[in-house]
Amino acid sequence: MFSLRLKLLIPTLLTTALMIAGIVYIIWVENTLFQQDIQKEQEFRQLKLYNGFKELVIKIVELTQFIGQDWQIQDSLLTEDRDRLLDLLIPFHQGFGFDLINVYDGQGTLIMRTDQPHLFGKTDQFQPEIAKFLKNPPTKPQITLFEGNLVLVRWQIFQEKTHGINAAFAVGYYLNAQNLNHINNLCGQPFFT
């Protein structure tokens, strides 16, 4: 009935088909595992990046809370002692690496700037926001532009009702190469180049 050639060809074809099916299955499983590994690695890196930014945010929040509660800083504002205010805030700028610690009056005029102490009595691009922030200060740090740089900034409002003093503190970090490298180092892997 069937020739010998056909009797040998059928098992050979079946064996070949099973081998091809096995190879396709192995490739599919490997690809699925590879995609899962990539997704886990991406989630891990996102978590590390989140933690790096969170560390910066925590430092900003802690300093703004300290500024809002420190009696010496409040006293310097009340007595309008700009030099003492500089002496109190410049160590935070230099020692803790904050890029931006600015103090504004209630009209948005710059009282003090730790990175450029000679600048005062002027307004800058935060001026339109000051009145809004004095009424309803944001509770979370924001990413905004300041002098052409991205900055992670948080506001702290000081209001002394008896003497009618209003002030706003802007504390933050520039999102520049140095700070992004700091986040890279925290993460252990380069995110930004």
Task: Walk me through what this model shows.
It is a single chain. By secondary structure, this protein is of the alpha+beta class. The protein has two domains: 1-33; 49-181, PAS domain (Beta-Lactamase). Helix content is 56%, strand content 19%. Strands 2-1-5-4-3 form a five-stranded antiparallel beta sheet, sandwiched between helices. The termini are far apart. The model has no long low-confidence stretch (mean pLDDT 81).
Task: Sum this structure up briefly.
With 193 residues, the protein is an alpha+beta fold.
Within the largest sheet, what's the order of strands?
A: 2-1-5-4-3
Share of residues in strands: 15-25%
Separation, N- and C-terminal Cα atoms: 73 Å
Overall body shape: rod-shaped
What is the second-level CATH architecture of the largest domain?
2-Layer Sandwich
Low-pLDDT parts are: none
Beta-strand segment tally: 5
Key features?
5 helices; 193 residues; five-stranded antiparallel sheet; 2 domains; alpha+beta; single chain; 5 strands
Please write out the topology.
Layout: H1 4-69, H2 71-78, H3 82-95, E1 100-105, E2 110-113, H4 127-135, E3 142-146, E4 149-160, E5 165-174, H5 177-187
Antiparallel strand pairs: 1-2, 1-5, 3-4, 4-5
Helix pairs in contact: 1-5, 2-3
